[in-house]
Design brief:
It comes from Kitasatospora terrestris. The chain has 159 residues and is of the alpha+beta class. It has one helix at residues 2-27; strands at 40-48, 57-65, 71-77, 81-90, 93-97, 100-102, 107-110, 115-122, 131-138, 142-151.
Length: 159
């Protein structure tokens, strides 16, 4: 009987220790993910008024990533246009690109003279003050819809 009591007490101690260890292990939370998330916001979007009616337009904006993970801009669409493509300007030429990186704790700048959007096939001619929707689709963050104002051709952000 005494032996049974000792075995019972030993089992109780072992179970209590196991519960304490499991409880302590869960307090630290889940293990950090190796695939950290991006936290994207869009700033300073604008479309300069196209110089010719029915002509191509350009789109500029900054994608900020405050997150730990990187992302990629895969495509841009708009209900106001037949197509929106991403381009990179280099010395003397412009080339279409299929995606653009958004680094962790960094920015993707779509600006004059560099990487930008080309907007074609307007559903109606944009006018100063219009706000057109651009839908930016990212590899990890999904799609972000942005209202983009049409500004004078001479507009520069921050000026």
């Amino acid at each position: 009987m005494r032996r049974a009591a000792l075995i019972g007490a030993g089992t109780a101690v072992a179970l209590t220790a196991a519960v304490i260890l499991v409880g302590c292990g869960s307090e630290s939370g889940p293990a950090p993910s190796s695939d950290a998330a991006a936290k994207l916001t869009v700033a300073d979007p604008y479309i300069p008024l196209p110089a010719t009616p029915g002509g191509m337009g350009a789109g500029y904006l900054t994608v900020r990533n405050e997150g730990e993970g990187e992302d990629r801009l895969l495509k841009v669409t708009s209900p106001a246009a037949g197509s929106v493509t991403m381009h990179r300007s280099t010395t003397g030429s412009m080339e279409e690109v299929q995606s653009l990186p958004v680094p962790a704790h960094g920015t993707l700048d779509l600006a004059r003279g560099g990487t930008h959007l080309m907007i074609m096939g307007w559903t109606r001619q944009p006018a100063l003050g219009d706000e057109l929707e651009l839908d930016l689709t990212f590899a990890k963050s999904g799609t972000i819809a942005v209202k983009v104002p049409v500004k004078p051709l001479t507009y520069r952000p921050g000026s």
